[in-house]
Amino acid sequence: MENHTKATEFILTGFKSYPESQVLLSVLFSAMYVVTVVGNACMILIIRTDSKLHTPMYFFLENLSILDICYSSVITPKAALTFSLGRRIISYNGCASQMFFFSLFGTTEAFFLAMMAYDRFTAICNPLLYQIIMNKRLCIFMVGGSYLSGCINCTIQTGFTFNLSFCGPKEINHFFCDVPAVMHASCSDTLVNEIVMLAVCGSIIVGTALVVFISYGYIIITIVRMPSAESRRKAFSTCSSHMLAVSLFFGAVFFMYAQPGATSSPDKSNTISILYTIVIPMLNPFIYTLRNQEVVSVLRTAFFDIQLGFSASENPV
Predict the structure, then answer these.
(1) What phi-psi label fits residue 188: left (phi over 0), alpha (psi between -120 and 50 degrees) or beta?
(2) Which pTM does this prediction carry?
Protein backbone atom coordinates (compact mmCIF):
# COMPACT_ATOMS: atom_id res chain seq x y z
CA MET A 1 0.00 0.00 0.00
CA GLU A 2 1.40 3.40 -1.06
CA ASN A 3 2.20 5.93 1.63
CA HIS A 4 0.39 9.08 0.55
CA THR A 5 2.08 11.77 2.60
CA LYS A 6 2.82 15.40 2.17
CA ALA A 7 6.32 15.79 0.77
CA THR A 8 8.83 17.80 2.78
CA GLU A 9 11.49 17.83 0.07
CA PHE A 10 12.19 16.69 -3.48
CA ILE A 11 15.26 15.46 -5.33
CA LEU A 12 16.08 17.14 -8.66
CA THR A 13 17.58 14.50 -10.95
CA GLY A 14 17.92 16.48 -14.18
CA PHE A 15 21.19 15.68 -16.03
CA LYS A 16 22.12 13.28 -13.19
CA SER A 17 22.95 10.63 -15.80
CA TYR A 18 25.96 12.72 -16.92
CA PRO A 19 28.17 12.79 -13.77
CA GLU A 20 31.30 13.70 -15.74
CA SER A 21 29.62 16.90 -17.01
CA GLN A 22 28.40 18.32 -13.68
CA VAL A 23 31.28 20.78 -13.23
CA LEU A 24 31.01 21.89 -16.86
CA LEU A 25 27.26 22.41 -16.50
CA SER A 26 27.82 24.44 -13.33
CA VAL A 27 30.39 26.69 -15.02
CA LEU A 28 28.21 27.04 -18.12
CA PHE A 29 25.07 27.93 -16.16
CA SER A 30 26.99 30.39 -13.96
CA ALA A 31 28.55 32.11 -16.98
CA MET A 32 25.21 32.40 -18.77
CA TYR A 33 23.61 33.84 -15.63
CA VAL A 34 26.32 36.51 -15.27
CA VAL A 35 25.95 37.45 -18.96
CA THR A 36 22.16 37.58 -18.55
CA VAL A 37 22.28 39.90 -15.55
CA VAL A 38 25.01 42.18 -16.95
CA GLY A 39 23.50 42.35 -20.45
CA ASN A 40 19.96 43.12 -19.30
CA ALA A 41 21.18 45.55 -16.60
CA CYS A 42 23.10 47.45 -19.30
CA MET A 43 19.96 47.63 -21.44
CA ILE A 44 18.00 49.05 -18.50
CA LEU A 45 20.74 51.62 -17.80
CA ILE A 46 20.99 52.67 -21.46
CA ILE A 47 17.23 53.15 -21.80
CA ARG A 48 16.86 55.06 -18.54
CA THR A 49 19.80 57.42 -19.14
CA ASP A 50 19.09 58.39 -22.76
CA SER A 51 16.02 60.59 -23.30
CA LYS A 52 15.79 59.59 -26.99
CA LEU A 53 14.85 56.09 -25.86
CA HIS A 54 11.96 57.21 -23.64
CA THR A 55 9.34 55.81 -26.03
CA PRO A 56 6.74 53.04 -25.66
CA MET A 57 8.92 50.50 -27.48
CA TYR A 58 11.83 51.02 -25.10
CA PHE A 59 9.51 51.17 -22.10
CA PHE A 60 8.45 47.63 -22.99
CA LEU A 61 12.04 46.61 -23.71
CA GLU A 62 13.19 47.93 -20.32
CA ASN A 63 10.47 45.93 -18.59
CA LEU A 64 11.42 42.87 -20.64
CA SER A 65 15.02 43.20 -19.42
CA ILE A 66 13.85 43.43 -15.79
CA LEU A 67 11.64 40.40 -16.37
CA ASP A 68 14.48 38.38 -17.95
CA ILE A 69 16.75 39.02 -14.95
CA CYS A 70 14.01 37.79 -12.60
CA TYR A 71 13.13 34.87 -14.89
CA SER A 72 16.72 33.62 -15.02
CA SER A 73 17.31 34.25 -11.30
CA VAL A 74 14.50 31.87 -10.35
CA ILE A 75 16.22 28.90 -12.02
CA THR A 76 19.87 29.38 -12.99
CA PRO A 77 21.65 30.04 -9.63
CA LYS A 78 19.95 27.05 -7.96
CA ALA A 79 20.76 24.80 -10.93
CA ALA A 80 24.41 25.91 -10.98
CA LEU A 81 24.75 25.17 -7.25
CA THR A 82 23.08 21.81 -7.72
CA PHE A 83 25.60 20.80 -10.39
CA SER A 84 28.65 22.14 -8.51
CA LEU A 85 27.85 20.89 -4.99
CA GLY A 86 25.93 17.77 -5.96
CA ARG A 87 23.17 18.69 -3.49
CA ARG A 88 20.04 17.97 -5.47
CA ILE A 89 17.54 18.32 -2.64
CA ILE A 90 15.01 21.15 -2.78
CA SER A 91 12.47 21.76 -0.02
CA TYR A 92 8.74 21.45 -0.60
CA ASN A 93 8.22 25.20 -0.09
CA GLY A 94 11.29 25.99 -2.19
CA CYS A 95 9.96 23.87 -5.04
CA ALA A 96 6.52 25.49 -4.81
CA SER A 97 8.07 28.97 -4.77
CA GLN A 98 10.28 28.19 -7.77
CA MET A 99 7.32 26.86 -9.75
CA PHE A 100 5.19 29.89 -8.79
CA PHE A 101 7.73 32.48 -9.93
CA PHE A 102 8.85 30.50 -12.98
CA SER A 103 5.22 30.28 -14.16
CA LEU A 104 4.69 33.96 -13.31
CA PHE A 105 7.67 35.26 -15.27
CA GLY A 106 7.31 32.76 -18.13
CA THR A 107 3.65 33.65 -18.68
CA THR A 108 4.36 37.37 -18.35
CA GLU A 109 7.14 37.12 -20.96
CA ALA A 110 4.70 35.62 -23.48
CA PHE A 111 2.32 38.55 -22.92
CA PHE A 112 5.22 41.02 -23.12
CA LEU A 113 6.24 39.69 -26.53
CA ALA A 114 2.63 39.97 -27.69
CA MET A 115 2.25 43.59 -26.57
CA MET A 116 5.65 44.49 -28.09
CA ALA A 117 4.42 43.04 -31.39
CA TYR A 118 1.25 45.13 -31.08
CA ASP A 119 3.39 48.20 -30.36
CA ARG A 120 5.38 47.66 -33.57
CA PHE A 121 2.15 47.00 -35.50
CA THR A 122 0.74 50.33 -34.32
CA ALA A 123 3.98 52.22 -35.03
CA ILE A 124 4.34 50.92 -38.60
CA CYS A 125 0.75 50.37 -39.72
CA ASN A 126 -0.78 53.43 -37.96
CA PRO A 127 2.13 55.88 -37.55
CA LEU A 128 -0.05 59.01 -37.39
CA LEU A 129 -2.07 57.62 -34.48
CA TYR A 130 0.85 55.91 -32.73
CA GLN A 131 1.41 58.51 -29.99
CA ILE A 132 -2.32 58.74 -29.32
CA ILE A 133 -2.90 54.98 -29.16
CA MET A 134 0.29 53.98 -27.32
CA ASN A 135 0.00 56.58 -24.58
CA LYS A 136 1.68 56.21 -21.21
CA ARG A 137 -1.49 55.10 -19.46
CA LEU A 138 -2.09 52.28 -21.94
CA CYS A 139 1.55 51.13 -21.74
CA ILE A 140 1.41 50.90 -17.94
CA PHE A 141 -1.96 49.12 -18.16
CA MET A 142 -0.54 46.56 -20.63
CA VAL A 143 2.49 45.83 -18.44
CA GLY A 144 0.29 45.53 -15.34
CA GLY A 145 -2.17 43.32 -17.21
CA SER A 146 0.66 41.03 -18.32
CA TYR A 147 1.82 40.55 -14.74
CA LEU A 148 -1.77 40.02 -13.58
CA SER A 149 -2.25 37.32 -16.23
CA GLY A 150 1.00 35.72 -15.08
CA CYS A 151 -0.20 35.79 -11.47
CA ILE A 152 -3.47 34.10 -12.36
CA ASN A 153 -1.74 31.35 -14.32
CA CYS A 154 0.99 30.66 -11.77
CA THR A 155 -1.58 30.56 -8.94
CA ILE A 156 -3.66 28.01 -10.84
CA GLN A 157 -0.68 25.84 -11.88
CA THR A 158 1.04 25.89 -8.49
CA GLY A 159 -2.19 25.40 -6.54
CA PHE A 160 -3.34 22.41 -8.60
CA THR A 161 0.12 20.80 -8.71
CA PHE A 162 0.87 21.01 -4.99
CA ASN A 163 -2.58 19.70 -4.14
CA LEU A 164 -1.34 16.32 -5.33
CA SER A 165 0.05 13.58 -3.09
CA PHE A 166 3.70 12.52 -3.35
CA CYS A 167 5.04 9.15 -2.26
CA GLY A 168 8.10 7.02 -2.85
CA PRO A 169 11.47 8.69 -3.57
CA LYS A 170 9.84 12.03 -4.60
CA GLU A 171 12.29 12.48 -7.48
CA ILE A 172 11.73 15.23 -10.07
CA ASN A 173 13.37 14.34 -13.36
CA HIS A 174 14.36 17.94 -14.12
CA PHE A 175 16.86 20.56 -13.01
CA PHE A 176 14.08 22.80 -11.67
CA CYS A 177 10.48 22.46 -10.49
CA ASP A 178 8.58 22.62 -13.77
CA VAL A 179 4.88 21.79 -13.69
CA PRO A 180 4.89 18.61 -15.86
CA ALA A 181 7.97 17.21 -14.08
CA VAL A 182 6.49 17.71 -10.61
CA MET A 183 3.15 16.24 -11.72
CA HIS A 184 4.99 13.21 -13.04
CA ALA A 185 6.56 12.70 -9.59
CA SER A 186 3.13 12.50 -7.95
CA CYS A 187 1.40 9.25 -7.06
CA SER A 188 -2.05 10.85 -7.46
CA ASP A 189 -4.27 10.80 -10.53
CA THR A 190 -3.08 13.81 -12.56
CA LEU A 191 -5.72 13.78 -15.29
CA VAL A 192 -7.51 16.90 -14.01
CA ASN A 193 -4.16 18.69 -13.59
CA GLU A 194 -3.14 17.81 -17.14
CA ILE A 195 -6.45 19.07 -18.54
CA VAL A 196 -6.16 22.33 -16.59
CA MET A 197 -2.54 22.82 -17.67
CA LEU A 198 -3.39 22.12 -21.30
CA ALA A 199 -6.43 24.41 -21.26
CA VAL A 200 -4.81 27.36 -19.44
CA CYS A 201 -1.29 27.18 -20.90
CA GLY A 202 -2.60 26.26 -24.34
CA SER A 203 -4.91 29.27 -24.45
CA ILE A 204 -2.10 31.58 -23.30
CA ILE A 205 0.44 30.25 -25.81
CA VAL A 206 -1.99 30.17 -28.73
CA GLY A 207 -3.54 33.55 -27.84
CA THR A 208 -0.27 35.44 -27.47
CA ALA A 209 1.25 33.71 -30.49
CA LEU A 210 -1.75 34.71 -32.62
CA VAL A 211 -1.37 38.35 -31.57
CA VAL A 212 2.34 38.19 -32.42
CA PHE A 213 2.04 36.51 -35.82
CA ILE A 214 -1.01 38.49 -36.96
CA SER A 215 0.74 41.74 -35.97
CA TYR A 216 3.92 40.84 -37.82
CA GLY A 217 1.91 39.62 -40.79
CA TYR A 218 0.36 43.08 -41.15
CA ILE A 219 3.76 44.67 -40.49
CA ILE A 220 5.44 42.72 -43.29
CA ILE A 221 2.63 43.59 -45.73
CA THR A 222 2.90 47.29 -44.79
CA ILE A 223 6.70 47.30 -45.12
CA VAL A 224 6.62 45.64 -48.55
CA ARG A 225 4.20 48.33 -49.77
CA MET A 226 6.42 51.22 -48.62
CA PRO A 227 7.62 53.22 -51.65
CA SER A 228 10.94 54.27 -50.12
CA ALA A 229 13.78 51.74 -49.81
CA GLU A 230 15.13 53.71 -46.83
CA SER A 231 11.77 53.47 -45.06
CA ARG A 232 11.65 49.73 -45.68
CA ARG A 233 15.21 49.31 -44.34
CA LYS A 234 14.47 51.31 -41.19
CA ALA A 235 11.22 49.44 -40.54
CA PHE A 236 12.87 46.04 -40.99
CA SER A 237 15.72 47.18 -38.74
CA THR A 238 13.41 47.96 -35.83
CA CYS A 239 11.28 44.82 -36.27
CA SER A 240 13.80 42.14 -37.22
CA SER A 241 15.18 41.96 -33.67
CA HIS A 242 11.67 41.56 -32.28
CA MET A 243 10.85 38.81 -34.78
CA LEU A 244 14.05 36.94 -33.92
CA ALA A 245 13.35 37.06 -30.16
CA VAL A 246 9.74 35.99 -30.70
CA SER A 247 10.75 33.10 -32.97
CA LEU A 248 13.25 31.81 -30.40
CA PHE A 249 10.80 31.97 -27.49
CA PHE A 250 7.65 30.63 -29.13
CA GLY A 251 9.61 28.11 -31.20
CA ALA A 252 11.07 26.59 -28.02
CA VAL A 253 7.73 26.66 -26.17
CA PHE A 254 5.83 25.10 -29.06
CA PHE A 255 8.50 22.43 -29.52
CA MET A 256 8.42 21.67 -25.80
CA TYR A 257 4.65 21.42 -25.37
CA ALA A 258 3.21 20.82 -28.87
CA GLN A 259 5.75 18.44 -30.43
CA PRO A 260 4.40 14.84 -30.18
CA GLY A 261 6.51 12.92 -27.66
CA ALA A 262 8.75 15.91 -26.92
CA THR A 263 8.26 15.68 -23.16
CA SER A 264 8.43 11.87 -23.05
CA SER A 265 12.23 12.04 -23.02
CA PRO A 266 13.60 13.65 -19.82
CA ASP A 267 16.93 14.49 -21.48
CA LYS A 268 15.15 16.21 -24.38
CA SER A 269 12.87 18.13 -21.97
CA ASN A 270 15.85 19.29 -19.90
CA THR A 271 17.77 20.41 -22.97
CA ILE A 272 14.86 22.33 -24.51
CA SER A 273 14.10 23.93 -21.14
CA ILE A 274 17.61 25.41 -21.07
CA LEU A 275 16.81 27.23 -24.31
CA TYR A 276 13.70 29.12 -23.20
CA THR A 277 14.56 29.57 -19.50
CA ILE A 278 18.27 30.46 -19.63
CA VAL A 279 19.55 31.01 -23.18
CA ILE A 280 16.79 33.31 -24.45
CA PRO A 281 16.94 35.72 -21.45
CA MET A 282 20.71 35.86 -22.03
CA LEU A 283 20.40 36.52 -25.78
CA ASN A 284 17.58 39.10 -25.67
CA PRO A 285 19.74 42.16 -24.85
CA PHE A 286 22.23 41.23 -27.59
CA ILE A 287 19.46 40.65 -30.13
CA TYR A 288 17.85 44.02 -29.42
CA THR A 289 21.21 45.82 -29.23
CA LEU A 290 22.93 44.45 -32.33
CA ARG A 291 19.83 44.72 -34.55
CA ASN A 292 18.64 48.11 -33.29
CA GLN A 293 20.28 51.16 -34.84
CA GLU A 294 19.05 53.55 -32.13
CA VAL A 295 20.60 51.49 -29.33
CA VAL A 296 23.82 50.99 -31.33
CA SER A 297 24.02 54.77 -31.86
CA VAL A 298 23.61 55.39 -28.11
CA LEU A 299 26.32 52.83 -27.33
CA ARG A 300 28.70 54.42 -29.84
CA THR A 301 28.11 57.86 -28.34
CA ALA A 302 28.67 56.54 -24.81
CA PHE A 303 31.87 54.74 -25.87
CA PHE A 304 33.13 57.88 -27.61
CA ASP A 305 32.41 59.97 -24.48
CA ILE A 306 34.31 57.46 -22.34
CA GLN A 307 37.28 57.62 -24.70
CA LEU A 308 37.26 61.42 -24.52
CA GLY A 309 37.14 61.26 -20.73
CA PHE A 310 40.17 58.96 -20.61
CA SER A 311 42.06 61.17 -23.06
CA ALA A 312 41.32 64.26 -21.00
CA SER A 313 42.49 62.60 -17.77
CA GLU A 314 45.71 61.38 -19.39
CA ASN A 315 46.48 64.75 -21.00
CA PRO A 316 45.41 67.47 -18.55
CA VAL A 317 45.74 71.03 -19.72
Answers:
(1) beta
(2) 0.86
